[in-house]
Amino acid sequence: MKSRKIRVLIAKPGLDGHDRGAKVIARGLRDAGMEVVYLGLHLTPEHIVEAAIQEDVDIIGLSCLSGAHMALFPKTVRLFKEKSRRQVLFIGGGIIPDKDVPRLKEAGIDRVFGPGTPISKIVDFIKTSLEVKSDSGKN
Amino acid sequence: MKTTGREDKQMEEVAERKKEFRTTVDGTAVKRVYTTADLEEFEKDDSLPGDYPFTRHIMPSGYRGRLWTMRQYAGFATVEETNRRYKYLFEQGNTGFSVAFHLPTQMGYDSDHPMAVGEVGRCGVAIDSLQDMEELWEGIPLADVSTSMTINATAPIIMAMYIAAAEKQGTDRSQLAGTIQNDILKEYIARNTYIFAPEPSMRLVTDLCAYCAQEMPKWNSLSICGYHMRDAGATAIQEAAFTLADGIAYVQAMLDRGMDVDSFAPRFSFMMACNINLLEEVAKFRAMRRKWARIMKERFSARNPRSMMFRFHVQGDGSTLTKQQPLNNIVRVTIETLASVLAGCQSAHACSYDEALALPSEEAVQLSLRTQQIIAHESGVADTVDPLGGSYYVEWLTNHIEQEVQKYIELIDRMGGAVEAVKSGYIQKEIARSAYDYQLAVDSGEQIVVGVNKFTTAEESGLELFEIPEGGEKKQIERLKRMRLKRNNQKVRQVLGEVRRRAAGSENIMPAMVEAVKAYATAGEISDALRDVFGEYREPIILA
């Protein structure tokens, strides 16, 4: 399974238009050698899931700064799992109060990165997590 | 170079903590000290405050007459809650209102639309119909207040609702004072609450401006924004240049409709960000005042000095606030507000220290207002006009920024103006590049952010965060459904037909909007009528 680049989808579900973070992360992951599909703004969870399946991605990154994350992130995970059996890593970003993080984890968001996170930290997390996932896949 | 022992010793004494010092406006080197010699290459500007080109202030007396307006942006959940918050702010000495609308209202969806799920009452107040607007202002006489409304793609609808709500209170639209943002170009660039393509959107913007010019002499029909570009990562020079380029596009569009420049330009104002670099920000605003005055006089032949005045509202740049060690943000907000005042803003919103974590709590909002009041009444900076004018560095920076802004404007002119530069994605790309460069500088430690990449601590903040009351979404949807049953639906169909007819033609859309909202057609329904004619826009994907 070597030489296939890590494939990432970055998307903004809902109506929030703050896309600085999403774009910076998309560019940063691309510069770290990943293949990034930046899907853009104003998307429904359905649309994101469809694109993720079509693009055969390893990671789905969701960003929301409007406070609608509790409605949109878990729904995206749920729809994806209904439609695909692929092991995918879900990461979230935006203005996410700490108290929501455990609930998002329960709903299947593997990690939430808030404002001020260095890109390298996200890259490391992705690489480590995918190694773990592919190892456990072998057993 | 030959040196004496004494100079060597001096050099040693001043061993500097960085190899090079650079501005954040464009990375130009900052010299150790500035003198009159640094100003020689620029055209001399000895103007006084209140005199063209208004570099020092638009009014001769600055804040000695009247302080800036302390306008705190607020709005959340349903109209009852927001109404309560407004009354509270008013009692605390807030001298103007600023309405935050929830995203569905901004994007032309009713609260029961599938796209609105999870967003109802989140970033602002839910306004679906005139009924909501009436109740938002319940007990607050619109004749006596000034209101700023952050609304763009659906600005004509919300303006119509405000007019109709005032009328119900017995106040004619000609008496209303305030500002509607109505700046669609920056939505494509940064804020992203657009619905239609740039051309029909520009038509709606100018319809509203033309209507206000005729009917509402005290209303600011357009607030040209740099704030959101800065928040998205633009440098100070990019923020200034792209904002003025947008301003040029709007003025040109109004002239193209056959309007006289002095009939509308005095009612155009600006909304800008203030970042943390105090001297750079002061210089930016001084440069913008001078540049806008020159553009209006030289390019557009304005005769009324009011058309040439760069009047601006400032908000501290939200992107400078950190989630880590949130109390540090109190200091950042203070510096940013101080810079805004030293620069001569007409009104200011001080951010709250908890904004990188959640919507601000009441306590945090009060502290922001107190920050403004301390600067106004204790610091002394409001007692003389443009106190930093004459500082060699600030004057040099003012000139430098103006010069670089001019280069961008010329480039955008060659592209065919701001509308074209937006459609091609040029402006978005410039900003995305700056945002990425900044992130790299922070990640590498070259740009220090206290508490984030230096002087960090492991502790959690432990702040009491504001939480949106539960159940607002359900309540709002029920209200909306009840309202739809009560109104005359045949009349609604008729008024929406008129909106469609005007949208397809060239008559000003505003009278049809006012009739439509009076019949209780909702923001979503009216937006759909416009979608029928204009279609929807999807942005080009631009990463940098």
Category by helix and strand content of chain B: alpha/beta
How much of the sequence lies in strands of chain A comes to: 15-25%
- Going by CATH, what is the homologous superfamily of chain A? Cobalamin-binding domain
- CATH homologous superfamily name of the domain at 69-444 in chain B? Methylmalonyl-CoA mutase
Order of helices and strands of chain A: EHEHEHEHEH
Based on the coordinates given, report the CATH architecture of chain A: 3-Layer(aba) Sandwich
Task: Please name the CATH topology of the domain at 69-444 in chain B.
Answer: TIM Barrel
How far apart the termini of chain A lie comes to: 15 Å
**Major sheet of chain A: order of its strands?**
2-1-3-4-5
What does this structure look like?
- The complex is a heterodimer of chains A (139) and B (544).
- With 139 residues, chain A is of the alpha/beta class.
- In chain A, helix 2 (45-55) crosses helix 3.
- Chain A has a single domain (7-138), classed as 3-Layer(aba) Sandwich (Rossmann fold), CATH 3.40.50.
- Chain A is 46% helix and 22% strand.
- Chain B has 544 residues and is α/β, with parallel strands linked by helices.
- In chain B, 48% of the residues lie in helices and 7% in strands.
- Chain B contains 21 helices and ten strands.
- In chain B, strands 1-10-9-8-7 form a five-stranded parallel beta sheet. In chain B, strands 2-3-4-5-6 form a five-stranded parallel beta sheet, covered by helices on one side.
- The longest helix of chain B has 24 residues, at 392-415.
- The radius of gyration of chain B is 24 Å and the shape is globular.
- The model of chain B has no long low-confidence stretch (mean pLDDT 93).
- The interface between A and B is large, with 36 and 46 residues.
Summary of the model, kept short:
The complex is a heterodimer of chains A (139) and B (544). Chain A has 139 residues and is an alpha/beta fold.
